[in-house]
Amino acid sequence: MKIIGNLLWWLFGGLEAAIGYFTGSLAMALTIIGIPVALQTLKIGMLCLWPFGAEVKNTDCPAGCIRIPLNIIWILFGGLWAWLMHVLFGILLAITIIGIPFAKQHFKMAGLSLAPFGKDVVLHF
Fold first, then answer.
1. Other residues' Cβ atoms within 10 Å of the Cβ of residue 77
2. Residues 86, 110: contact at Cβ < 8 Å?
3. Torsion angle defined by CA atoms of residues 23, 25, 31 and 34, in that order, rounded to the nearest 10 degrees
4. Given a cut of 70, is residue 20 above it in pLDDT?
5. What is the pLDDT of residue 64?
6. pLDDT value, residue 92
7. Using CA atoms, how far apart are residues 17 and 23, in angstroms rounded to an integer?
8. Phi then psi for 92, rounded to 5 degrees?
9. Radius of gyration of the CA atoms of the chain, in A
10. What does DSSP assign to residue 47?
């Protein structure tokens, strides 16, 4: 069932969204200072590429004090817009019964795109 859900996700815009996140990740990786942001957009892109069967977990990284400033910077420079986009699409998809599983995936991505530092994506194939 996960494979069918992911194929439908790719067909109806998930692949384009993942390509957008990967392109942004590549653009940020070209600068030295943008590498931490590039890793986070790559993480969101992987979740956007394979949302059914993936889960977002908190990391056990001991560098917890740096997460808060990085997440604040993330929110100010684009994270809020990504969160708004995923919430809007989630609400629109939740209107129909068929769209509810896809809405749940958008809400999962919204949580990650609001504050990605300190979270990890685990893909279950």
1. 10
2. yes
3. 150
4. yes
5. 67
6. 94
7. 10
8. -65, -40
9. 14
10. H
Maximal CA-CA distance, the chain: 45
- Which of these, 125, 107, 50, 115, lies nearest to 78 by C-alpha position? 115
The tokens for 110 are 């919204």
Give 92-110 pLDDT, tens digit per residue: 999 999 999 999 999 999 9
pTM of the predicted structure, to 2 decimals? 0.87
Query: Per DSSP, what are the bridge partners of residue 4?
Result: none
For 5, 14, 26, 77, the CA distances from 1, given in Å and listed in that order, are 6, 17, 32, 36
Q: In the numeric block, which tokens belong to residue 28?
A: 């940020």
Angle between helices 100-114 and 80-94 (to 10 degrees): 170
Q: State the DSSP string of 67-120.
A: HHHHHHHHIIIIIHHHHHHHHHHHHHHHTSSTTHHHHHHHHHHHHHHH--TTEE
Q: Rounded distance, CA 30 to CA 26, Å?
A: 6
Average pLDDT over residues 51-78: 85
**pLDDT value of residue 63:** 62
User: Tokens for 111?
Assistant: 């949580």
